[in-house]
Design goal:
Elements: H1 2-20, H2 28-32, H3 34-39, E1 42-43, E2 76-81, E3 86-94, H4 100-107, H5 110-113, E4 125-128, E5 135-141, E6 144-145, H6 154-173, E7 176-177, E8 186-189, E9 225-228, E10 235-236, H7 277-294, H8 312-318, H9 329-341, H10 345-349, H11 359-378
């Protein structure tokens, strides 16, 4: 039995190596357009060169250490902006399937970028594909998950929440509903934290793949900017008077009460009843805060964060089952700022601990936190970080 398992494991490893040694059909589009992209000033990784030969075919190279072993998403790929070597992300979008290109580009217009609450992902360029009139490529900044590395202080979390709430408030003021708000659509520009750049796909590694990439600073030491991404389900209205009404479209948050439907015998409860999407954005925003900062249980790494119960009353109102009882974003923003103004400097500087941390682990990080805290107080760093505009 053991020999059989070992043989099976060898075959599985061999199959995996064979797969990554070939460009997948879903990646071929990028290979076919590599030369055109380079002429437009965007260089793809070696894997996407026509006739590519895997670097680990050289016996001196271990495939686990090879940067070119990572395949591409069919619609999203990293690139290097020439001539200065800036890392960017390329997102392929079909303009007939959504208003993402139109809305994302509009949010990056000079007039809207002047608003400090505009934390929507900026668009550097929109490329028209020469052989497909329906496709566009959005050139976007390289970002990182909003909570990686983990938050050090309550103040760092409050700054994150403030930026995200500001952005949803900004969108609603401009009659735009995001339509797919959840934790994976919140990112940050982590470059201030990493003096050595990280790899776009394997962000635990350095960009040159010659070692691991580690944050050298906390957000209090070097504040970061957070961004809302992915406007594929977003809608922009000319007017919200009377309130708009839309047939439900399921996004990443499957817990939305108005998306439950009334018929359990049908898929998604037979969703068909039109709804106002703005209160749904409010629910998803509140549910993100509830899930990521108040109620997470079980997993050690992502277990409940302690010290954020001051957010509970606001979050409870934002996530009410009846959409008509939820506050609008004007009210959410006002209440949030009132809450923040009531927090002491000591509270904002306190460490973000988790419910399931091991006591020894907790003691180790608490000691490091206090040493850093004393230093930052001496340097007069604000308890509530805020990035430069």
């Amino acid at each position: 039995m053991t020999a059989t398992l070992r043989t099976r494991e060898k075959h599985e490893i061999s199959d995996a190596r064979r797969r990554i040694s070939q460009v997948e059909p879903a990646e071929q589009w990028w290979v076919d357009h590599r030369s055109w992209l380079e002429n437009r000033g965007y260089l793809l990784r070696p894997r996407f060169t026509p006739g590519w030969s895997p670097s680990w075919h050289d016996p001196k190279v271990n495939s686990e250490d090879a940067e070119d072993r990572f395949p591409a998403d069919p619609n999203v790929l990293d690139a290097t902006k020439l001539p200065f070597g800036e890392p960017v992300m390329l997102k392929r979008v079909n303009k007939l399937q959504s208003k993402e290109v139109e809305i994302t580009a509009m949010l990056s217009s000079p007039a809207l970028l002047k608003d400090p609450r505009n934390h929507c992902i900026p668009v550097y360029d929109v490329l028209e594909i020469p052989d497909d009139d329906n496709l566009r490529i959005l050139v976007l900044p390289l970002l990182r998950k909003y909570d990686d590395p983990p938050f050090d202080t309550v103040g760092e979390v409050v700054d994150c929440l403030r930026q995200v709430l500001e952005c949803v408030h900004f969108l609603h003021e401009h009659n735009i509903v995001h339509g797919d708000f959840h934790r994976l659509n919140i990112m940050m520009d982590a470059s201030p934290l990493f003096p050595v750049p990280f790899h776009p796909l394997r962000q635990t590694m350095r960009r040159d793949f010659k070692g691991t990439a580690e944050a050298a600073y906390t957000r209090t030491e070097r504040p970061v900017k957070y961004y809302i991404i992915d406007f594929g389900l977003s809608i922009r209205y000319n007017s919200v008077d009377p309130p708009p009404s839309e047939v439900p479209v399921l996004g990443g948050d499957k817990s939305v009460p108005e998306f439950k439907g009334d018929d359990p015998s049908k898929r998604y409860g037979g969703l068909s009843k039109p709804y106002n999407p703005f209160p749904t954005d409010v629910y998803c925003l509140g549910n993100w805060i509830r899930e990521d900062f108040l109620d997470k249980t079980g997993e050690v790494i992502r277990s409940k964060k302690l010290g954020f119960e001051f957010l509970r009353p606001l979050v409870d109102d934002m996530t009410q089952a009846d959409p008509s009882k939820r506050p609008n974003m004007d009210q959410v923003a006002e209440r949030f700022e009132s809450i923040v103004s009531s927090l002491s400097s000591s509270k904002l500087r306190s460490r973000v601990a988790k419910a399931n941390d091991h006591p020894l682990y907790n003691m180790y990080w608490a000691t490091k936190h206090w040493a850093r805290r004393i230093k930052l107080v001496a340097l007069r760093r604000p308890a509530l970080p805020s990035p430069d505009p």
